[in-house]
Amino acid sequence: MLSAENLGILRGERVLFEGVSLEVRRGDAVLLRGANGAGKTTLLRILAGLTRTDSGHVTRGAAHHWIGHREGLKPHETPRAHLALWAKAWGAEADTNTILGDMGLSRPADVAARYLSAGQRRRTALARLMLDIRPVWLLDEPFTALDAEGRERVLAMVHKHRQNGGAVVAAVHGDSGFVASQEMVL
Ligand SMILES: Nc1ncnc2c1ncn2[C@@H]1O[C@H](COP(=O)(O)OP(=O)(O)OP(=O)(O)O)[C@@H](O)[C@H]1O
To answer: Which residue range or ranges hold the ABC transporter domain (predicted)?
Structure first.
């Protein structure tokens, strides 16, 4: 679904990482670990095609979702408007009301992002995963700011996605709650 061979990246004079290879198959959950600044976000961005690698290459065999650690919500945007915008951009026909309900966002669905809690903003970003079915999910610290219920919700989404043959690559700190098929420490 996704493979990376011999990736390496320089930041200034420093080699951030080198020789990183990865093979992501159906049903996989790959955990990226490492200290702050180790390069997890950079690696995920390279996998998503958002940052250019200095060496090696990535082969993408399936469509992916990228959910970064910044939620990508504009201050005036409501969860409902955010999902509607992306649904339109992707030509997705999913029912946004159902997704808002499933993500626990029915109550704040029409509240501007600047007034949402951090967890509500994160739930809104993660709701994009439900808009359009894509086999590979690239998730940067997906549990940040989520309460216990939100975390369980995301774990259930990941579980179902993997059962349906999808794959996840996630940067996480601490306990992920996933049964990982691979762990990579940067
Ligand atoms: N575009 C860039 N130009 C220069 N340096 C960068 C750039 N992007 C990232 N870096 C640096 O690369 C290093 C790795 O950053 P990255 O965000 O990938 O780490 P991380 O492992 O995700 O960290 P954290 O756990 O804190 O989120 C950091 O020192 C960061 O400052």
So the answer is: 2-185
CA distance 83 to 66: 15
Say how far residue 3 (Cα) sits from the centre of its chain: 17
**What range defines the domain where residue 120 resides?**
2-185
Half-sphere exposure at residue 156, Cβ-oriented, CA atoms within 13 angstroms: 8
Domain count, the chain: 1
The residues, any chain, with a CB within 8 Å of residue 157's CB and separated by 6 or more, are 126, 129, 130
Q: From CA 124, how far away is CA 105, in angstroms rounded?
A: 8
180 alpha carbon to ligand 1 midpoint, in Å?
24
- As a three-state string, the secondary structure of 52-93 is CCCEEEEEECCCEEEECCCCCCCCCCCHHHHHHHHHHHHCCC
Give the pLDDT of the chain (186 residues) as one tens digit per residue. 999 999 999 988 889 999 999 999 999 999 999 999 999 999 999 999 999 999 999 999 999 999 998 888 999 999 999 999 999 999 998 999 999 999 999 999 999 999 999 999 999 999 999 999 999 999 999 999 999 999 999 999 999 999 999 999 999 988 778 788 899 999
Measured CA to CA, the distance from residue 8 to residue 40 in angstroms comes to 12
What is the pTM for the complete model shown?
0.94
39 Cα: distance to centroid of ligand 1 (angstroms): 5
